[in-house]
Design a protein that fits this description.
GO terms for molecular function: peptidoglycan beta-N-acetylmuramidase activity. By secondary structure, this protein is of the alpha/beta class. The protein has 13 helices and 12 strands. The longest helix is centred in the last third of the chain and has 19 residues. The two termini are 38 Å apart.
Length: 421
């Protein structure tokens, strides 16, 4: 063990001792605690640090414990896989749970992922995106701490928050501590979209929240626990969040690692909340290209747009994309100024309105029976009215007015769970 590592561990151990020897806390912090946490000012010149990178706050606590981890390629410590880093620090990792796309990120969107043994470390990998969605009692037998360390992008239909809830349920059922290594939400500046009508609950929408929820994963874990969103009224008593340092919700953040195969550029991440709605339409969002979520188009728009792209089968990204091997005509948003999204703090609905007006066969625009690669717009938007509003030619402003009552109530509820200003 190096002297520098010994120093880090010693400092961390001292921090734990000063904190009365305990690294756990209540899973449902009082509103006063959240308010105090969120009002802490950021000191000028201090660099943002993820929870994972602040190893002094949790590595000493993990020594001597049997640890399991929920991770994917976005889970890093200092640019290195958090699993590999913690193993090098002497932490005993007994198993890894992999979400959608798998632990090493080599599975396509929606593809089932099998259990395996990690070739690099020899650690058993249990898939949470195959035969099961959450760890079983057998999976957690002998586990002292389960660590959740996955980069999220802050939108309802990005499935990692479902996995977070599922592992919280398992930990609550089997009395295992959950540690969340918090990471920034690149869309934390924005709270927008209709609140999900639970009538349309699905794999891409499981919580009564807007499309862009404005929370880090640590804050979202507190909301899940506090609002009773786990099965059978379960509550997680052992929830430990390793907070971000020097962070606020308005802070721009470029993800150091692609969060998933089809969010492969900073531009795609920023456009995702707006463009993913098109998965409930006949318009391709660029899956089957190397520029997904930065372009929009369809073959039938020929003659209306000059820009073209052709979706093809790409292993590990999209094997059977919508409009495969067909030339699509539409919008190139690769150079769109995403700062406009930050300034308005809103999803861009103008593209949906424009392309619906331009599409010649309007009865097919939202018809998911056209292709298995099309989703159901009610599940993506979360409400029945959105389709009707677009079809009726409503303006963006008029559509947004229908969202406001739900957003107002959500924003008030959200205040209870904030950890950052």
């Amino acid at each position: 063990m190096t002297k520098s590592l010994l120093s880090i561990l010693s400092l961390g151990l001292l921090a734990v001792i000063l904190a009365n020897g305990s690294c756990t806390r209540s899973s449902a912090p009082a509103a006063t605690t959240s308010a105090q946490s969120s009002s802490t000012s950021i000191k000028p010149g201090k660099a943002l640090m993820t929870g994972a990178d602040q190893t002094e706050k949790y590595v000493p606590y993990l020594k001597g414990k049997k640890v399991a981890m929920v991770v994917n390629p976005s889970s890093t410590i200092g640019g290195k896989s958090s699993v590999d880093s913690l193993l090098a620090s002497g932490i005993q990792i007994v198993k890894v749970f992999g979400p959608e796309h798998g632990f090493r990120g080599n599975a396509s969107n929606g593809a089932k992922v099998d259990d395996e043994v990690d070739a690099k470390t020899g650690i058993p990998i249990i898939s949470l995106y195959g035969k099961k969605r959450k760890p079983s009692k057998e999976d957690l037998t002998g586990v002292d701490v389960l660590i959740y360390d996955i980069q999220d992008v802050g939108v309802r239909f990005y499935t990692n928050i479902n996995t977070l809830r599922d592992v919280m349920e398992s930990c609550a059922e089997h009395n295992v501590e959950l540690m969340v290594l918090d990471r920034p939400n690149p869309h934390a500046y924005m709270i927008d979209g209709p609140i999900l009508d639970m009538k349309y609950k699905s794999g891409i929408g499981q919580f009564p929240i807007p499309i862009a929820h404005g929370l880090t994963v640590g804050e979202f874990a507190q909301m899940v626990n506090g609002e009773g969103w786990m099965e059978k009224g379960l509550k997680l008593n052992k929830l430990n969040i390793i907070k971000l340092a020097n962070y606020n919700h308005d802070m721009p953040y470029v993800l150091p690692v692609n969060p998933s195969p089809n969010l492969n550029t900073p531009q795609s991440v920023m456009l995702y909340p707006s463009l993913c709605l098109f998965e409930g339409t006949i318009i391709s969002q660029g899956r089957g290209t190397h520029m997904p979520f930065t372009v929009l188009g369809a073959p039938t728009l020929k003659g209306k747009y000059d820009f073209t792209f052709t979706p093809v089968s790409i292993k590990g990204m999209s094997e059977t994309p919508l409009h495969m091997n067909e030339v699509c005509y539409g919008l190139d948003l690769r150079k769109y100024d995403v700062e406009q999204l930050r300034k308005k703090r809103q999803i861009n609905l103008s593209w949906m309105i424009e392309l619906y007006k331009a599409y010649p066969e309007k009865e097919r625009f939202f018809d998911s029976s056209y292709s298995k690669q099309m989703g159901v717009i009610e599940r993506l938007a979360g409400v029945a009215d959105f389709r009707k509003q677009i079809e009726a030619g409503w303006s963006e402003e008029r559509i947004r007015e229908t969202w406001e009552p739900g957003l107002k109530a959500y924003k008030e509820m959200r205040k209870k769970y904030l950890l950052y200003p």
